[in-house]
Design brief:
The protein contains eleven helices and eleven strands. The chain is α/β, with parallel strands linked by helices and 237 residues long. Helix 1 (27-36) runs parallel beside helix 3 (57-71) and helix 7 (147-157) packs parallel to helix 8 (177-187). The longest helix has 15 residues, at 57-71.
Length: 237
């Protein structure tokens, strides 16, 4: 099981999106912590760009350079508001290997086609789901298709991997592995799962799911939760 530690960036700070109670902090410190623990993978999410409220593009470029310097050869995924080839190329030029696209899958199919034509090997399809319903934007609007249809579309479009973001329906809600299985079986591509994976027990259950390559976990939660010390040991895998 691979761990994809995720740093969510808002107003130039690393923030937690799923109620872990961690205060915003300097993302450079978080990236340095991960590199020091032997991480070889990193996800950076521009929350402001995803919400259409500015961007943290230059900061993300600096974070990528710092992680590559500290970790050596590494795989970095960047997501949040990537809606053009120019934006995609900027992140690739500054050290990204994977680019996460989500909202435009539902809103801008022509842009998706253009991105796939140029960056197919780099693209990760993001599927956000709450209580079994695919969300189209901002985690508060239902998409006009279900999880199985989303998986089929991802396969037909030719994506190489998918990030299934399981948005907890309520604090402490268990992970929705049923929907994870549906997306994995219908997409037939490498899949990571994030959002609701927050405890060692969740990790153990995730390891039993066929087709799941790894899990995306909040880097702040990994850093601050002593119970996840075992997960930190997986960063090198």
């Amino acid at each position: 099981m691979k761990i994809l530690p995720t740093v969510n960036i808002q107003n130039a700070c690393a923030v937690s999106l799923f109620g872990t109670g961690t205060a915003p902090c300097d993302p450079m410190e978080v990236v340095a912590f991960l590199a020091a623990r032997g991480a070889r993978r990193l996800a950076l999410v521009d929350v402001d760009a995803a919400c259409g409220k500015g961007h943290n593009r230059d900061l993300i470029a600096r974070l990528m350079r710092a992680f590559h310097k500290g970790a050596g050869r590494a795989c970095i995924q960047v997501g949040g508001g990537i809606r053009s080839s120019d934006q995609a190329q900027f992140f690739l030029d500054h050290g990204a290997a994977w680019l996460l696209v989500g909202t435009i899958l539902h809103r801008s199919p022509l842009v998706v086609e253009q991105l796939l034509a140029r960056f197919r090997e780099n693209l990760t399809a993001g599927v956000d789901v709450r209580a079994g319903e695919v969300q189209s934007a901002g985690w508060d609007a239902k998409a006009p298709l279900g999880p199985e249809d989303a998986g089929v579309r991802i396969r037909r479009q030719g994506f190489k991997r998918v990030l299934y973001m399981d948005l907890p329906a309520a604090p402490g809600a268990p992970p929705d592995f049923r929907t994870a299985r549906i997306i994995a079986e219908s997409s037939h591509v490498s899949m990571f799962m994030g959002g609701s994976i927050q405890t060692p027990e969740h990790l153990a259950m995730a390891q039993e799911l066929p087709g799941l390559q790894g899990v995306a976990m909040d880097a702040l939660h990994l850093r601050d939760n002593p119970a996840l010390a075992g997960a930190l040991n997986l960063l090198r895998s």
